[in-house]
Amino acid sequence: MARAALRPLTTFRLRTGKTAAPEPAEPDRAQRARRAGSSRRARKAERAAEAESARPEHRPLPFPLRLLAMLVAFAFMVAFAVALARITLEPSPASAALVHSNLRPGDSLRAYLDQPALRDAVKQIGGNLLLGVPFGVLVPVVAPRARGLVRVLLLTATVMLLVEFAQGALVTGRAFDIDDVILNTTGALIGYLLLGRRVSRAVHARKQRV
Question: Does the pTM of the predicted model rise above 0.70?
Answer without folding.
Answer: no
